[in-house]
Write a structure and sequence with these properties.
single chain, alpha/beta, TIM Barrel, Non-ribosomal Peptide Synthetase Peptidyl Carrier Protein, Chain A, 2 domains, nine-stranded parallel beta sheet, two-stranded antiparallel sheet, 45% helix, globular
Length: 324
Protein backbone atom coordinates (compact mmCIF):
# COMPACT_ATOMS: atom_id res chain seq x y z
CA UNK A 1 0.00 0.00 0.00
CA UNK A 2 1.19 3.54 -0.74
CA UNK A 3 0.27 6.91 0.71
CA UNK A 4 1.66 9.27 -1.86
CA UNK A 5 5.31 8.26 -2.11
CA UNK A 6 5.26 6.39 1.23
CA UNK A 7 5.42 2.63 0.78
CA UNK A 8 3.76 0.57 3.52
CA UNK A 9 3.33 -3.18 4.01
CA UNK A 10 0.23 -4.76 2.52
CA UNK A 11 -2.79 -4.23 4.79
CA UNK A 12 -1.04 -2.03 7.38
CA UNK A 13 -2.32 -1.57 10.92
CA UNK A 14 -2.37 2.09 11.87
CA UNK A 15 -2.56 3.67 15.32
CA UNK A 16 -5.44 6.16 15.30
CA UNK A 17 -4.82 9.72 16.50
CA UNK A 18 -6.42 10.17 19.93
CA UNK A 19 -6.28 13.30 22.04
CA UNK A 20 -4.40 12.81 25.33
CA UNK A 21 -3.62 9.22 24.28
CA UNK A 22 -1.31 9.09 21.26
CA UNK A 23 1.51 11.13 22.75
CA UNK A 24 5.11 10.43 21.78
CA UNK A 25 5.60 7.81 24.50
CA UNK A 26 2.57 5.75 23.48
CA UNK A 27 3.35 6.10 19.78
CA UNK A 28 6.87 4.83 20.47
CA UNK A 29 5.52 1.85 22.43
CA UNK A 30 3.04 0.95 19.67
CA UNK A 31 5.65 1.38 16.95
CA UNK A 32 7.96 -1.07 18.75
CA UNK A 33 5.00 -3.46 19.10
CA UNK A 34 4.44 -3.45 15.33
CA UNK A 35 2.25 -0.48 14.38
CA UNK A 36 2.92 0.33 10.72
CA UNK A 37 1.93 4.00 10.96
CA UNK A 38 1.43 6.37 13.89
CA UNK A 39 -0.26 9.78 13.96
CA UNK A 40 -0.04 12.67 16.40
CA UNK A 41 -2.72 13.79 18.78
CA UNK A 42 -4.84 16.22 16.81
CA UNK A 43 -3.69 19.83 16.72
CA UNK A 44 -5.97 22.86 16.56
CA UNK A 45 -5.08 24.89 13.48
CA UNK A 46 -5.57 28.24 15.21
CA UNK A 47 -3.25 27.14 18.04
CA UNK A 48 -0.64 26.06 15.50
CA UNK A 49 -0.54 29.38 13.70
CA UNK A 50 -0.28 31.17 17.07
CA UNK A 51 2.68 28.87 17.86
CA UNK A 52 1.12 27.72 21.13
CA UNK A 53 3.88 25.78 22.85
CA UNK A 54 1.65 23.01 24.19
CA UNK A 55 0.30 22.34 20.69
CA UNK A 56 3.73 22.38 19.08
CA UNK A 57 5.01 19.97 21.76
CA UNK A 58 2.27 17.50 20.78
CA UNK A 59 3.78 17.24 17.32
CA UNK A 60 7.36 16.41 18.32
CA UNK A 61 8.44 13.02 17.03
CA UNK A 62 11.52 10.86 16.52
CA UNK A 63 12.80 9.22 13.36
CA UNK A 64 11.95 5.82 14.87
CA UNK A 65 8.24 6.71 14.63
CA UNK A 66 8.16 7.03 10.85
CA UNK A 67 5.95 6.76 8.89
CA UNK A 68 4.41 9.50 11.03
CA UNK A 69 1.54 11.86 10.33
CA UNK A 70 0.45 15.12 11.93
CA UNK A 71 -3.31 15.57 12.26
CA UNK A 72 -4.89 19.03 12.21
CA UNK A 73 -8.45 20.24 12.66
CA UNK A 74 -10.33 23.50 12.27
CA UNK A 75 -13.05 25.18 10.24
CA UNK A 76 -11.40 28.14 8.51
CA UNK A 77 -9.70 27.67 5.15
CA UNK A 78 -6.98 30.30 5.55
CA UNK A 79 -6.11 29.21 9.09
CA UNK A 80 -6.02 25.51 8.18
CA UNK A 81 -3.82 26.14 5.15
CA UNK A 82 -1.37 28.11 7.30
CA UNK A 83 -1.45 25.36 9.93
CA UNK A 84 -0.73 22.70 7.30
CA UNK A 85 2.27 24.69 6.10
CA UNK A 86 3.60 24.98 9.66
CA UNK A 87 3.04 21.26 10.24
CA UNK A 88 4.83 20.48 6.97
CA UNK A 89 7.91 22.35 8.19
CA UNK A 90 8.25 19.71 10.92
CA UNK A 91 8.79 17.14 8.13
CA UNK A 92 6.18 14.50 8.96
CA UNK A 93 5.49 11.91 6.28
CA UNK A 94 1.97 13.20 5.72
CA UNK A 95 -0.66 15.65 7.00
CA UNK A 96 -3.98 14.19 8.12
CA UNK A 97 -7.12 16.34 8.26
CA UNK A 98 -9.60 15.51 11.00
CA UNK A 99 -13.11 15.73 9.56
CA UNK A 100 -14.37 13.08 11.98
CA UNK A 101 -14.07 14.13 15.64
CA UNK A 102 -17.60 14.05 17.12
CA UNK A 103 -16.80 15.87 20.39
CA UNK A 104 -19.35 18.64 20.95
CA UNK A 105 -16.90 21.49 21.62
CA UNK A 106 -15.24 20.81 18.26
CA UNK A 107 -18.08 19.59 16.05
CA UNK A 108 -20.60 22.28 17.03
CA UNK A 109 -18.06 24.94 16.05
CA UNK A 110 -17.75 23.38 12.59
CA UNK A 111 -14.53 21.48 13.17
CA UNK A 112 -14.05 17.72 12.99
CA UNK A 113 -17.27 15.95 12.02
CA UNK A 114 -19.13 19.26 12.27
CA UNK A 115 -17.89 19.97 8.74
CA UNK A 116 -19.96 17.01 7.48
CA UNK A 117 -22.90 19.43 7.56
CA UNK A 118 -21.07 21.58 5.02
CA UNK A 119 -19.46 19.14 2.58
CA UNK A 120 -18.78 21.77 -0.09
CA UNK A 121 -16.63 23.78 2.32
CA UNK A 122 -15.04 20.56 3.62
CA UNK A 123 -13.89 19.67 0.11
CA UNK A 124 -12.82 23.24 -0.63
CA UNK A 125 -10.60 23.41 2.47
CA UNK A 126 -9.18 19.95 1.77
CA UNK A 127 -8.28 20.95 -1.79
CA UNK A 128 -6.61 24.15 -0.58
CA UNK A 129 -4.48 22.21 1.92
CA UNK A 130 -3.45 19.68 -0.73
CA UNK A 131 -2.30 22.53 -2.98
CA UNK A 132 -0.45 24.27 -0.15
CA UNK A 133 1.93 21.46 0.79
CA UNK A 134 4.31 19.16 -1.03
CA UNK A 135 3.74 16.20 1.29
CA UNK A 136 0.79 13.79 1.05
CA UNK A 137 -2.51 14.85 2.62
CA UNK A 138 -4.94 12.29 4.03
CA UNK A 139 -8.38 12.59 5.61
CA UNK A 140 -10.11 10.85 8.49
CA UNK A 141 -13.88 11.22 8.62
CA UNK A 142 -17.20 9.49 9.40
CA UNK A 143 -20.17 8.23 7.42
CA UNK A 144 -22.04 11.51 7.79
CA UNK A 145 -23.71 13.76 10.33
CA UNK A 146 -26.58 11.41 11.19
CA UNK A 147 -28.47 8.37 9.93
CA UNK A 148 -30.44 10.48 7.40
CA UNK A 149 -27.31 12.15 6.00
CA UNK A 150 -24.72 9.47 5.28
CA UNK A 151 -22.82 11.32 2.59
CA UNK A 152 -19.60 9.33 2.63
CA UNK A 153 -20.02 7.52 -0.71
CA UNK A 154 -20.22 10.78 -2.66
CA UNK A 155 -17.79 12.56 -0.34
CA UNK A 156 -15.10 9.91 -0.87
CA UNK A 157 -15.05 10.61 -4.62
CA UNK A 158 -14.99 14.36 -4.03
CA UNK A 159 -12.07 14.07 -1.60
CA UNK A 160 -10.17 11.89 -4.04
CA UNK A 161 -10.76 14.50 -6.74
CA UNK A 162 -9.45 17.13 -4.30
CA UNK A 163 -6.13 15.27 -4.29
CA UNK A 164 -5.94 13.41 -1.01
CA UNK A 165 -3.59 10.42 -0.85
CA UNK A 166 -5.68 8.15 1.41
CA UNK A 167 -9.01 8.15 3.22
CA UNK A 168 -9.81 6.68 6.64
CA UNK A 169 -13.48 6.13 7.40
CA UNK A 170 -14.91 5.52 10.86
CA UNK A 171 -18.09 3.49 10.46
CA UNK A 172 -20.34 5.73 12.56
CA UNK A 173 -22.10 9.06 12.11
CA UNK A 174 -21.35 12.13 14.18
CA UNK A 175 -24.53 11.77 16.21
CA UNK A 176 -23.65 8.19 17.13
CA UNK A 177 -20.48 9.39 18.85
CA UNK A 178 -18.98 6.04 19.96
CA UNK A 179 -22.32 4.38 20.69
CA UNK A 180 -23.89 1.45 18.88
CA UNK A 181 -21.99 -0.64 16.38
CA UNK A 182 -19.76 0.64 13.60
CA UNK A 183 -21.28 0.02 10.17
CA UNK A 184 -18.63 -1.10 7.69
CA UNK A 185 -21.09 -1.63 4.82
CA UNK A 186 -20.50 1.77 3.25
CA UNK A 187 -16.75 1.49 3.82
CA UNK A 188 -16.82 -1.70 1.76
CA UNK A 189 -18.98 -0.04 -0.90
CA UNK A 190 -16.44 2.76 -1.30
CA UNK A 191 -13.54 0.34 -1.52
CA UNK A 192 -15.39 -1.58 -4.23
CA UNK A 193 -16.16 1.56 -6.21
CA UNK A 194 -14.24 1.18 -9.47
CA UNK A 195 -13.62 4.92 -9.57
CA UNK A 196 -11.79 4.95 -6.23
CA UNK A 197 -8.04 4.40 -6.57
CA UNK A 198 -6.67 5.87 -3.33
CA UNK A 199 -6.22 3.59 -0.28
CA UNK A 200 -9.31 3.18 1.87
CA UNK A 201 -8.65 2.51 5.55
CA UNK A 202 -11.39 1.17 7.81
CA UNK A 203 -11.90 2.16 11.43
CA UNK A 204 -14.38 1.32 14.17
CA UNK A 205 -14.97 -1.54 16.63
CA UNK A 206 -11.81 -3.47 15.79
CA UNK A 207 -10.76 -4.85 19.17
CA UNK A 208 -8.55 -7.79 18.22
CA UNK A 209 -6.17 -9.04 15.57
CA UNK A 210 -8.79 -11.57 14.49
CA UNK A 211 -11.41 -8.86 13.95
CA UNK A 212 -8.93 -6.82 11.92
CA UNK A 213 -8.16 -9.80 9.69
CA UNK A 214 -11.88 -10.54 9.27
CA UNK A 215 -12.63 -6.92 8.29
CA UNK A 216 -9.89 -7.06 5.66
CA UNK A 217 -11.33 -10.26 4.24
CA UNK A 218 -14.94 -9.10 4.29
CA UNK A 219 -14.64 -5.48 3.15
CA UNK A 220 -11.39 -5.60 1.13
CA UNK A 221 -10.07 -2.37 2.65
CA UNK A 222 -6.42 -1.47 2.18
CA UNK A 223 -5.65 -1.04 5.86
CA UNK A 224 -7.11 -0.97 9.35
CA UNK A 225 -6.93 1.83 11.89
CA UNK A 226 -6.98 0.88 15.59
CA UNK A 227 -8.03 3.37 18.23
CA UNK A 228 -9.37 2.64 21.70
CA UNK A 229 -8.47 -1.07 21.49
CA UNK A 230 -4.78 -0.15 21.55
CA UNK A 231 -5.02 1.71 24.85
CA UNK A 232 -3.10 -0.32 27.43
CA UNK A 233 -2.85 -3.02 24.78
CA UNK A 234 0.03 -2.38 22.35
CA UNK A 235 0.22 -6.16 21.85
CA UNK A 236 -2.67 -5.87 19.40
CA UNK A 237 -0.12 -4.81 16.76
CA UNK A 238 2.19 -7.74 17.53
CA UNK A 239 -0.74 -10.15 17.45
CA UNK A 240 -1.94 -8.76 14.11
CA UNK A 241 1.51 -9.15 12.52
CA UNK A 242 1.81 -12.74 13.79
CA UNK A 243 -1.63 -13.61 12.45
CA UNK A 244 -1.22 -11.95 9.06
CA UNK A 245 2.41 -12.90 8.39
CA UNK A 246 2.67 -16.30 10.02
CA UNK A 247 -0.90 -17.46 10.58
CA UNK A 248 -0.19 -17.65 14.32
CA UNK A 249 -2.52 -16.75 17.16
CA UNK A 250 -0.40 -15.51 20.04
CA UNK A 251 -1.30 -16.27 23.67
CA UNK A 252 -2.74 -13.55 25.87
CA UNK A 253 0.10 -11.61 27.51
CA UNK A 254 0.88 -12.86 31.00
CA UNK A 255 0.47 -10.63 34.04
CA UNK A 256 4.24 -10.32 34.23
CA UNK A 257 4.40 -9.22 30.59
CA UNK A 258 1.69 -6.65 31.25
CA UNK A 259 3.57 -5.28 34.24
CA UNK A 260 6.78 -5.04 32.21
CA UNK A 261 5.00 -3.23 29.38
CA UNK A 262 3.34 -0.83 31.81
CA UNK A 263 6.75 -0.08 33.32
CA UNK A 264 8.23 0.46 29.86
CA UNK A 265 5.37 2.79 28.97
CA UNK A 266 5.93 4.82 32.12
CA UNK A 267 9.69 5.02 31.73
CA UNK A 268 9.24 6.08 28.10
CA UNK A 269 6.77 8.78 29.13
CA UNK A 270 9.32 10.06 31.65
CA UNK A 271 11.73 10.70 28.75
CA UNK A 272 9.35 13.27 27.29
CA UNK A 273 7.36 14.63 30.24
CA UNK A 274 7.67 15.66 33.85
CA UNK A 275 6.84 13.06 36.48
CA UNK A 276 3.43 14.64 37.02
CA UNK A 277 2.39 14.56 33.37
CA UNK A 278 3.95 11.14 32.75
CA UNK A 279 1.82 9.69 35.54
CA UNK A 280 -1.28 11.47 34.23
CA UNK A 281 -0.70 10.04 30.76
CA UNK A 282 -0.73 6.45 32.08
CA UNK A 283 -4.06 6.76 33.89
CA UNK A 284 -6.12 6.07 30.78
CA UNK A 285 -4.15 2.87 30.12
CA UNK A 286 -4.10 1.09 33.49
CA UNK A 287 -7.55 -0.46 33.10
CA UNK A 288 -6.61 -2.20 29.86
CA UNK A 289 -3.10 -3.16 30.95
CA UNK A 290 -4.65 -5.18 33.75
CA UNK A 291 -8.02 -6.04 32.26
CA UNK A 292 -9.83 -9.05 33.77
CA UNK A 293 -7.60 -9.35 36.82
CA UNK A 294 -9.88 -10.32 39.72
CA UNK A 295 -10.06 -7.81 42.57
CA UNK A 296 -8.04 -5.25 40.58
CA UNK A 297 -10.46 -2.37 41.19
CA UNK A 298 -8.91 -1.31 44.52
CA UNK A 299 -5.36 -1.33 43.13
CA UNK A 300 -6.52 0.55 40.05
CA UNK A 301 -7.97 3.32 42.20
CA UNK A 302 -4.61 3.64 43.93
CA UNK A 303 -2.82 3.76 40.57
CA UNK A 304 -5.17 6.51 39.42
CA UNK A 305 -4.35 8.66 42.43
CA UNK A 306 -0.62 7.91 42.66
CA UNK A 307 1.44 11.07 42.21
CA UNK A 308 4.92 9.61 42.56
CA UNK A 309 6.77 7.07 40.44
CA UNK A 310 7.69 5.17 43.61
CA UNK A 311 4.02 4.70 44.45
CA UNK A 312 3.30 3.23 41.03
CA UNK A 313 6.32 0.91 41.30
CA UNK A 314 5.09 -0.31 44.68
CA UNK A 315 1.63 -1.00 43.29
CA UNK A 316 3.06 -2.84 40.27
CA UNK A 317 5.08 -4.99 42.66
CA UNK A 318 1.91 -5.74 44.63
CA UNK A 319 0.21 -6.85 41.39
CA UNK A 320 3.21 -9.05 40.58
CA UNK A 321 3.22 -10.66 44.03
CA UNK A 322 -0.55 -11.14 43.95
CA UNK A 323 -1.01 -12.55 40.46
CA UNK A 324 2.31 -13.98 39.27
Amino acid sequence: MKIGTITLPDHPLILAPMEDITDQAFRTICKKAGADVVISEFAASDALIRKVEMTLNKLTFSEAERPYGIQIFGNNEEVMVQAAKIASELHPDFIDINWGCPVKKIALKGGGSGMLQNPDLLVKITSAIVKATDIPVTVKTRLGWDEQHKIIVTLAEQLQDAGIAALTIHGRTKTQMYNGCADWTLIGEIKNNARIHIPIIGNGDITSAEQAALALQQYKVDGIMIGRAAMGNPWIFTEYKALMNEGKTLPTPSVEERIDMCRLHLSTAMQYKSEHYALLSLRKHYKNYFRNLPFFKEIRMQLLTADKIEQVETLLNIIKDKYC
